[in-house]
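Hi R.,

Here's the chain you asked about this morning:
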Amino acid sequence: MSELFRELLKNVGSGTHTGKVLTRPEAQTATELMLKQEATPAQIGAFMIAHRIRRPTSTELAGMLDAYQALGPSLEPLDTAEPVLVLNSPYDGRSRTAPVSPLVSLVLAAAGHPTLMHGGARMPTKYGIPLSGVWQLLSVDWTGLQLSQVHRVLKSAHIGFIYVPQQFPLAEGLVTYREQIGKRPPSATLELLWSPYQGAVRVAFGFVHPPTEQRAQETFAQRHVSDYLAIKGLEGSCDLPRNRACIIGVQQPHQSFERVILHPQDYGMSGAEVSLPEPEPFASDMQDVLQGCDSPLATATIWSSGFYLWRSGDGCESLQDGIDLAHNILRTGKAFQALITLRAAIASAGSS
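And the predicted structure, written out as tokens:
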């Protein structure tokens, strides 16, 4: 038993009147002790459920991210001044709507904009299809690459993916606790805020509940992250909804936080959300999108891609410019060619 962790646990789990908020260094220490499994399983489970009930503060989240930065993987900067777009979505995946983030990243790659994702295999509590699984349906397998190989792929194909079981086994070691406590632990919030990249980033994270966005703002302020997008997306992802207004928070360097409300019907993008198909038809549907075929999935891809192209600049002075560019990239087969380039880059990295 870790006596140090026991004292930190007492602060988190002592209740309203006697409990104490952890300092940023204390939160980092607690997270590192859990990641290293130096705390006992009983201590880790108790900390997770107590912290979930009380909810971590922004200062505690900053300390927890410090631990991820200290112990987790981090890609070296690319030789570019453009920030890498880090698309952060819940690790336990999607169970109702079709994810388009991998398709969006291919559109962005075709336009020369690098994106980075991270995640694992199917996991509790949702057991939805994870982004790594969506990539596998596109015949792209990130699961066996080392960190240096991911960096080479990101550099050459403008897309990277940190597969947590392979590249951050310490974090993967805590996944089993999700099933045992039956709830997402506070570390699930880290999945939305973590950037495993050492250079300039633009973080895009999805959220469902407004308090998550508020805590993220405060956490990023403490960690001096000044370039991010907060998306009230589908199932907490970075995918923009089409059946309702899109609520987005925009923070740019040296500017004030801005609230952006987008109405899909104003751009001819509204419609019912695409339900998650079975794997085989979903793989076929995604291939059709990349071949330039019109479909509800293609519209969903263009809607989200257009937004991210707009926010990346690239001569897109308006959202409509971004939508038009995304449509053109898909129609002309450039996104499909980005997929071919990505497959080749992974094959080359895996053989080296």
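The chain has two domains: 3-71, 84-338.

Let me know if you need anything else.
M.
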